[in-house]
C-alpha cells in the first residue's frame, strides 16, 4: 500500500498575479490569490510536509527550450507597447490581450514550473505543485488560448535536459493540451495524454483520437475527446479506461500533470458537467499513479478555470492537499477569514464547504461492459484503438 503522506514543495510568488490581461478577460488572476489564501487559511502552508517557495523567472535560454527567439522578442515588444497587435505571434488578439507585465509575469510563471521539475528530478521533494502554471496552449512561435509561455512544456524540456529518458504528461483540462502535444509530437521520450471536451464543440478544435504522435514517436500522443455534457461518472470512466494502462506500459520516470478546473459544470467557457468532488478524485488517482509508475515523482500545475470564486480555489486547494498527503475532508467548511477575503476582493459570496455535495462513482470500462450505442464509450474505444496497440496493449 502506497504511503500517500508525502512531502511537497508548493511554488508560489504573489507577483504571479501580475499575469493579468485586464478587466473583462476570463483569465482573472484573482483566482490565483484566492487559491493561495484558501491554502493558507486551511493551514496547509504551515504543515510540516509542505514547503512554500518561489523561483526566479525563466531566463531566455530556458524559454528557448520550447519557444523561438523571435517569439520571445515579440512578447517583450508587446509588453513595451501593449497597444499594438502582432497577429503572426498571436499577441494583441481577442484571446491574448497585451499588458506591460506580459513577458515578466509569463516568465515568472514558467520559472516556477521549471524549478518544480528540477526539485523533483534532483530528489529535493517527491512532489511539487505550481497552480499558477498549466499554460498549455502556447506554441513555440505563437501565443494561444490565454497562454504566452508554455510552462508545462518547458518543465518537461528541462527534465529531458537534466537526463530524464521517459516523461509522461497527463492533462485533464477541459481544453486539449495542444501546445504540449505539439512540442513533443515527434519525441519518443515524452508521452502526452489529454482528456478534454470534443474538438467538435470546443477550442482549440484539436485533440482527436487519431492524433497519436509523429513518425519517430508513434503512440506517444494519446487523446480522448469527450462528448459535451459528460459528467462525473463518464469523466472518471474515461480517465481510468486509458491513463493507468498507458502509464504502466510507458514506465515514466516523472509524471507532469495539468489540472485545469474548467471541466466543472459551472465553468462559463466549456460544456462538461463535472463536480469539484470528481476533480478531487482525479487528483487522488494521479497521486497514486505517480507512486505506482514514476517512483513518486510528480510535478502538478493548474491551468484553465474561469469560475473564479466557486470552483478554482477549492479545486486547486484539494490538489495541493492531495499532493502533500494531507487530503481535506470534503465536508470541511471553508474558513470564515477566507470567505471574508472572497467578499472583499470580488463582492461575491464564497462557497461554504469544500465540496459540491457529489459522491463520484463510475463503472469500470474493463468490468462494466462496452455500450456500442453510447457516445462516451465510442470515444473511449476509439482512443484505446488508436494508441494502445503502439504500446503492445489490447484495445
Automatic annotation (TrEMBL):
PANTHER family, per the entry: HISTONE DEACETYLASE HDAC1, HISTONE DEACETYLASE HDAC1-RELATED
Family: Belongs to the histone deacetylase family.
Presence of keyword Amino-acid biosynthesis: no
Protein's pathway: Ketone degradation; acetoin degradation
Pfam families in alphabetical order: Hist_deacetyl (PF00850)
Keyword Transcription regulation: no
Protein name: Acetoin utilization protein AcuC
Alphabetical keyword list: Acetoin catabolism
Organism placement in taxonomy: Bacteria, Bacillati, Actinomycetota, Actinomycetes, Kitasatosporales
Record-annotated Histone deacetylase domain positions: 25-322
Highest taxon in the source lineage: Bacteria
